[in-house]
Design brief:
alpha+beta, 4 helices, rod-shaped
Amino acid sequence: MTSDETDFRDSGKLREKAEEQLKKNQKTAYALSIEADAGKLLHELQVHQIELEMQNEELQQAYETAEKALRKYTMLFDLSPMGYFSLNPDGVICDLNFTGADMLNERRFSLVNSNFKLFITEDSKTVFTDFFKRVYTSNAKESCQVMLGYDNKSLCRVYMEGVVTEDEQNCLLSVVDISKFSRD
């Protein structure tokens, strides 16, 4: 009998050889299992990567759409021939467009946080104050005509309409210069 042959009559040696064979088989099965798991994991990662690439592409398209809308509405707001203002409940200017700044004869960003009432002539302050109160109490669009000016200097006669936003409770004000149309 060669040394490679097992004596099946010796139960201890037989058991030892069987356990060695089982370990070999388990190692092979384990290696195959790991390989299969790695293949599954690689597949899942590849699918996830493709999903992320698709989401990224969708986000890029949404970003481009948002950028186009921003440019469009910025142009519409900033370059409108009508003055636009957003005033808080105290009459402080929160935002305005370039035309609104031109009507007040000031630079746009220097007007933010200024009180709009400072740019209403003394003769028109009562009209504006009544209009501003109505805007906040009626919850409807209100309008009036006032003279813009400061330091006893009249700038222009304007027609304005205002409405209060529900979310921030700011007054959105549109202002049109009607100096060329009115006789005062």
